[in-house]
Amino acid sequence: MATILLEVATPDKGEVYAKEINMLITRSICGELGILPKHARLLTELIPHAMRIKEGVGETQLFVSGGFMEVTPEKITILADSAELPDDIDVERAKAAYKRAEDRLAKKNPEIDIDRAEAALARAKARLLVKGVHMG
Ligand code: ATP
């Protein structure tokens, strides 16, 4: 089966993932993208979500909080603001972030930065989804 190298790095942690994979399903600001080996060149911005990485018969999820993805026929390079494999996600921390963001949005206080709270909520939701936790 043909493969393409996937590299994911963050400013905090450096390299988070580097492996030959068969397919990546990811979400960009323009919608969902399925990347196979020999994909056309592409540069796009990612939104917070759980990417699906297909390797052989298996599938791994990898949370990314947003960032940039460059695709060439041989390689996918993602520089994410943050990225975590399922085992590295702290559920209680994500639940706390979810509640904080939800409370801020519910109060409709004119001083809150709505975009920031919505982005925090989206990150928390995506992390919890990876762990199979559904809130509210
Ligand atoms: P919080 O409010 O809990 O910090 P956040 O969404 O604002 O959440 P980020 O800015 O995306 O956090 O990430 C900051 C750092 O903390 C990154 O290195 C990220 O991988 C890590 N991180 C954030 N939330 C979690 C979590 N629930 N489990 C594991 N690592 C996390």
Offer a concise description of the structure:
The protein has 136 residues and is α+β, with helices and mostly antiparallel strands.
Can you give a write-up of this model?
This protein folds into two domains: about 5-85, Sandwich (ATP Synthase, domain 1), CATH 2.60.15.10; about 90-130, ATP synthase delta/epsilon subunit, C-terminal domain (Single alpha-helices involved in coiled-coils or other helix-helix interfaces), CATH 1.20.5. It is about 25% helix and about 45% strand. It contains two helices and ten strands. It has helices at about 90-105, 115-130; strands at about 5-10, 15-20, 25-30, 30-35, 40-45, 50-55, 60-65, 65-70, 75-80, 85. The protein is elongated. The chain starts with a strand and ends in a 6-residue tail after the last helix. The model has no long low-confidence stretch (mean pLDDT about 95). Adenosine-5'-triphosphate binds near residues 84, 97 and 120. Adenosine-5'-triphosphate (ATP) binds near residues 65 and 127.
Based on the model shown, name its key terms:
alpha+beta, ATP Synthase, domain 1, Single alpha-helices involved in coiled-coils or other helix-helix interfaces, 2 domains, five-stranded mixed β-sheet, five-stranded antiparallel β-sheet, 10 strands, 25% helix, elongated, binds adenosine-5'-triphosphate
Q: Give the helix level as a range of percent.
A: 25-40%
The amount of beta strand, in percent, is: 35-45%
Which shape, going by the Cα principal axes? elongated
Order of helices and strands: EEEEEEEEEEHH
How many DSSP H or I helices? 2
